[in-house]
Prior knowledge:
Blueprint: E1 2-5, H1 13-22, E2 30-37, H2 39-50, E3 58-62, E4 86-94, H3 95-105, H4 109-124, H5 132-148
Parallel strand pairs: 1-2, 2-4
Antiparallel strand pairs: 3-4
Helix pairs in contact: 1-5, 3-4, 4-5
Amino acid sequence: MKIYSNKPKFLKEQLFDEALKATDNEVKNVAVGIRFVSPLKIRSLNKKARGIDRVTDVLSFPMLEGEKRGFLRDFDSERDPFSGELYLGDIVICLRRAKKQAKAFGHSLEREVCFLSLHGLLHLLGFDHIEQEDEKEMQALSENLLSKFGIKR
Length: 153
């Protein structure tokens, strides 16, 4: 997977490739955007997109519309006609919030940013955490992937 970002060096495309594989979405030439923004910017985006006027840690803006947890192989018609790239959407992370959360949880900034990035990617793939069971599934999937890459709490 290609990541377009002002990303920290520790954000690994291979982690996202594994997430695609784990969700049965292993297709070629997929891309996502990840932007790191200030608390003021993410608050503004949260208010505009969700009607919630507060700072949050991560937001996702999907480009593909379809059924919940659709499969990327069903979106070939959405590929860029020139590059063949399938752009999933954008993930926006408040870096200052991520730093505070990493400190509060007692783990590294790398771990927090990777967790938030995976969380955003899962939303782009159609996962949600409205129901407690779905939240547990997202959490377990993220933890398994992070552990596979040695990114532990």
